[in-house]
Design goal:
about 400 residues, 4 domains, 6-stranded mixed sheet, 7 helices, Molybdopterin biosynthesis moea protein, domain 2, Molybdopterin biosynthesis moeA protein, domain 3, Molybdenum Cofactor Biosythetic Enzyme, Chain A, alpha+beta, 28 strands
């Protein structure tokens, strides 16, 4: 066995990771239909006014407001109907005092009109339209450029393209937009015992779990996963695998990062890069490594499925999102009572999985090698390194997956 040389605190690991983030600089153009959730790489200014014309905000009648002064139910203003105006069409008439034009919501305001009276305040009165309420100038009108003026900034570089921002881009006529590329993340499991799902298991073999959980988490947090075939526990094979992954923006190996004689990822890193840390005082997931390999950030995740996925949530996700220029992940939390007392490992910050039932958090953690510690859980609680127990009934903050 080869002991960890310097296990660091979770806070120190996060500090070193933050210092190593290099936000992605590549960009690409994508169609607006694919822009949601991406990050704008350049400012976009509007080439037009939005709306591009003054328009009615109601179904009703376009009028000269002054000619409706004093109108009421008992003494309506009577106006001559000049035209009917629908969306997508303009009118050639000019509305003057004593006249009006029927108009649909969103239709262009005709010349001369300065207000719209909603249809509920009107009635047909023979050959005229009766107006039952006085209008004020600008009433029920969406003025040209009221939303966006030509030259206004629609999005800035670095903005997350939310549905509303995508809508604003569409409103000014954009068909595509420049966005930052998604980081490419090479994912590889190590171990002589790891085989592809679908194969027949020989004695001593297990199916590759971590490649699939890591692929899912990378996809969910702004990266493009590039899964690789599993690699054997040999330094030469692992160094060759690092070389194959050199074009990625981020490399994530699972397994081989502990302290056994066959845990050789550390030796492979030594051959190609610089170790930033190896060993974090957390449970599960102590044997986690981070390095810079040929200029590329590298995560060495534990081989045990729960440890691997837990530290992917805690350490990999924030790092990946920062590289992708995405805002920090903000999972939902609930404060509920704990259903059973928990004893925590001394001097290690513990992430303890729980399931929620009837408003109570029940322990779900089995062991770092058991994927159901996570798949049967709804979230986790954090137990600081200086706390060794959490009492039954204590209120705990559950971070939901």
């Amino acid at each position: 066995m080869r002991p960890f040389t310097s296990t660091i605190s979770l806070e120190e690991a996060r500090r070193r990771l933050a210092a190593s983030v290099r936000p992605i600089s590549r960009s690409e153009r994508v169609g607006l239909e694919h822009a949601g959730g991406r990050v704008a790489a350049a400012e976009v200014s509007s080439p037009i006014d939005v709306p591009p014309f003054s328009r009615s905000a109601m179904d009703g009648y376009a009028v000269v407001a002054a000619t409706t002064a004093g109108a009421s139910r008992s003494s309506p203003a009577r106006l001559r109907l000049l035209d009917r105006i629908y969306t997508g069409a303009t009118s050639s008439v000019t509305v003057t005092a004593g006249a009006c034009a029927e108009i649909a919501t969103g239709a262009p305001l005709p010349a001369g009109a300065d207000a719209v009276v909603m249809v509920e305040e009107t009635a047909h009165g023979g050959d005229a339209i009766e107006i039952f309420a006085a209008a004020s100038p600008g009433q029920n009108i969406g003025r040209r450029g009221a939303d966006i003026l030509a030259g206004d900034r629609v999005v800035s570089a670095g903005d997350l393209l939310t549905p509303s921002r995508v809508g604003a881009l569409a409103a000014v006529g954009c068909r595509d937009v420049e966005v930052y590329a998604k980081p490419r993340v090479a994912i590889l499991s190590t171990g002589n015992e790891v085989v592809e799902p679908g194969q027949v298991l020989a004695p001593g073999q297990i199916f590759d779990v971590n490649r699939f959980t890591l692929t899912a988490i990378v996809s969910a947090h702004g990266g493009v996963p590039e899964p690789q075939r599993a690699e054997q526990d040999e330094v030469e094979a692992l160094v060759a695998a690092l070389d194959r992954c050199a074009e990625a923006d981020l490399v994530v190996f699972s397994g081989g990062s502990s302290v056994g004689e066959r845990d050789l990822v550390v030796d492979a890193i030594r051959a190609r890069g610089e170790m930033i840390f190896h060993g974090v005082a957390v449970r599960p997931g102590k044997p986690t490594a981070f390095a810079i390999v040929s200029g590329t950030p590298f995560f060495g995740m534990p081989g045990n499925p729960t440890s691997c996925l837990s530290n992917a949530y805690i350490l990999l996700v924030p790092f990946l999102r920062a590289v992708a220029r995405l805002p920090p992940h903000a999972p939902r939390t609930l404060r509920v009572p704990l259903g059973r007392r928990i004893v925590s490992a001394a001097n290690r910050h513990q992430f303890y999985t729980v399931r929620l039932q009837d408003g109570v958090a029940h322990p779900a953690f089995k062991g770092s090698g058991d994927i159901t510690s996570l798949s049967h859980a709804d979230g986790y609680i954090e137990i600081p390194a200086d706390q060794d127990t959490v009492a039954e009934g204590a209120l705990v903050d559950v971070t939901l997956f």
